[in-house]
Write a structure and sequence with these properties.
By secondary structure, the protein is of the alpha/beta class. The chain is built from 14 helices and 21 strands. Strands 1-2-3-4-5 form a five-stranded mixed β-barrel. It has a five-stranded parallel beta sheet with strand order 7-14-8-9-10. A hairpin with a 2-residue loop joins strand 3 and strand 4. Helix 3 packs antiparallel against helix 4. The termini are far apart. The model has no long low-confidence stretch (mean pLDDT 97). Bound molecules: flavin-adenine dinucleotide (FAD) and 1,4-dihydronicotinamide adenine dinucleotide (NAI). Flavin-adenine dinucleotide binds next to helix 1, strand 2, helix 2, helix 3 and strand 3.
Length: 468
């Protein structure tokens, strides 16, 4: 007889594992099926965590080379030990993926390592990694199988020279010349890593700007900063193919004016977005509807698919492909399943690009506010006028707040600068509580901190910043 569960979760990424834990906390009997050998999904294994580990290590390497002397610290012969850097990254990943295993045990969640297929609307067949097969009966099934990199038909991944982010997190040697196709999140983060470690980095972007989703003013500042750091950009440039010979490639592209371009390099990182991952899941067999254009599983606001006993969350469904979005959906899903209220406010999901300076945003960009015909005010404050930023010698960037001209309600906040990733939390909280720029301006911020730049930008909405 098949094992019976209240909930079977397919995929142990930040969406699936968080949903499993919350459902177990709420008293449901839960199993989670994961086909990778470790838990944590893309995020912990080959995404957020290893990329941030490499960003943090390469940032320290860069500081030691270029910044310490200004702080009066003399270092002789700063050298890269790439093997040790990669191994530290692997240790961080192992610690966190083992942590999820511990949390599953603690919450009495049964874990099955193997590939899951929907056998019916209420049962899941698992081809176990250790061999053999089993079937689980489920009161409810949650699909949380995430996403995979988009492959360009004329530039197929070979895992050695033409690679995705997964391989670009594990290069054993610093590439001499890394060509990156796509100037979005992955291109800029991993481009920064390898540039800091010594590669020549060329980013080829299809659109006239990098990070197309960002506020244009901040995106332009980030572009300029990355150019100063030595990254080379070709915008409005269309890659049309590549010739790979041995360990080298020549990437062929068409420039702005139709001009033919070619780049000789030793690695090509293709990062032009990700697609929902549902191979082998058996969606069509049980009649789960997917969007014909994006391939994403169609859900309502409560994560129900068209099949009543099957729900879906995370990168597999509509919305930004971000770990915290997947996690919040996992919690909301579990609470709804257990008969409680659960919801995700999609208007206040922050996004962060972990370059240096970091860039973080929540809410509307200025372009979106304009397109909506909103009457808005803007307050900006530069980190150059912030005391803590000066003590850190990290004065690049600014905070920009958009507020409704009439009600003063905060519409969007965009930060480029040191630790923007942490600073954005205050903006998210304010927006979640439908707060105003006046609210931020009246809150006492410790001195000297970077957070004072957020307060000053709020004061600047009414042209009353004190320190600029
Ligand atoms: P996933 O994390 O993709 O997990 C899905 C899991 O399901 C996988 O482990 C997969 O093996 C498993 N699975 C799939 N099919 C089956 C099956 N049939 N049976 C069993 N198991 C199956 N987001 C951020 O918010 N911040 C970041 O800094 C960030 N950095 C990133 C860096 C990189 C290089 C990449 C690639 C992504 C990054 N992301 C980041 C995005 C983030 O990783 C994803 O948004 C997040 O992992 C999505 O979570 P998920 O639970 O939906 O799916
Ligand atoms: P992306 O969507 O961020 O960027 C892709 C870029 O490639 C865009 O600028 C796009 O215009 C460009 N592009 C598309 N087709 C192209 C082509 N043929 N030639 C040249 N350029 C082309 O996608 P990316 O970087 O692959 O990342 C995937 C997703 O993973 C992100 O959208 C994000 O959701 C997630 N992620 C999040 C991170 C974070 O939160 N810090 C870090 C890394 C990934």
């Amino acid at each position: 007889m098949a094992d019976r569960y209240d909930l079977v979760v397919i995929g142990a990424g930040p969406g699936g594992y968080v949903a499993a834990i919350r459902a177990a906390q709420l008293g449901l009997k839960v199993a989670c099926v994961e086909k990778r050998a470790t838990l944590g999904g893309v995020c912990l294994n080959i995404g957020c965590i290893p990329s941030k580990a490499m960003l943090d290590s390469s940032e320290l390497f860069s500081l030691a080379q270029h910044k310490f002397a200004k702080h009066g610290i003399k270092l002789a012969g700063v050298e890269l030990d790439l093997k040790a850097m990669l191994s530290r990254k692997d240790d961080v990943v192992k610690g966190l993926t083992d942590g999820v295993k511990f949390l599953f045990r603690k919450n009495k969640i049964d874990t099955l390592f193997g590939a899951a297929t929907l056998a019916s609307p209420t049962s899941v067949k698992v081809k176990l990694n250790e061999g053999g097969e089993t079937t689980l009966d489920a009161g409810h099934i949650l699909l949380a199988t995430g996403s995979a990199p988009i492959e360009l038909p004329f530039l197929k991944f070979d895992g050695k020279v033409v690679v995705s982010s997964t391989e670009a997190l594990t290069f054993e040697k610093v590439p001499e010349h890394l060509v990156i196709v796509g100037g979005g999140y992955i291109g800029l983060e991993l481009g920064s890593v390898w540039r800091r470690l010594g590669s020549k980095v060329t980013v080829v972007e299809f659109l006239p700007r990098i990070v197309p989703i960002a506020d244009l003013e901040l995106g332009t500042l980030l572009h300029k900063s990355l150019v100063k750091q030595g990254l080379e950009f070709f915008l409005e440039t269309k890659v049309t193919g590549a010739k790979v010979v041995g360990n080298k490639a020549t990437v062929i592209a068409e420039g702005k004016d139709g001009k033919p371009l070619s780049f000789d390099c030793d690695k090509v990182l293709v990062c032009v977005g990700r697609r929902p991952y549902s191979e082998g899941l058996g969606l069509s067999e049980v009649g789960v509807a997917v969007d014909s254009k994006s391939g994403k599983v169609t859900t309502d606001r409560h994560f129900h698919t068209n099949v009543p006993s099957i729900s879906a969350i995370g990168d597999l469904i509509d919305g930004p492909m971000l770990a915290h979005k997947a996690e919040d959906e996992g919690i909301a899903f579990a609470e709804i399943l257990a008969g409680k209220a659960g919801h995700v406010n999609y208007d206040t999901i922050p996004s962060v690009i972990y370059t240096w300076p970091e860039m973080a945003s929540v809410g509307l960009t200025e372009e979106q506010a304009k397109a909506k015909g909103l009457d808005y005010k803007v307050g900006k404050f530069p980190f150059a006028a912030n005391g803590r930023a000066r003590t850190m010698d990290e004065t690049e960037g600014l905070v920009k707040i958009l507020a409704d001209a009439k009600t003063d309600r905060v519409l969007g906040v965009h930060i480029i600068g040191p630790r923007a990733s942490d600073l954005i939390a205050e903006a998210v909280t304010t927006m979640e509580f439908a707060g105003s720029s006046e609210d931020i301006a009246r809150i006492c911020h410790s001195h000297p901190t970077l957070s004072e730049a957020v307060k000053e930008a709020a004061l600047a909405v009414d042209k009353r910043a004190i320190h600029a």
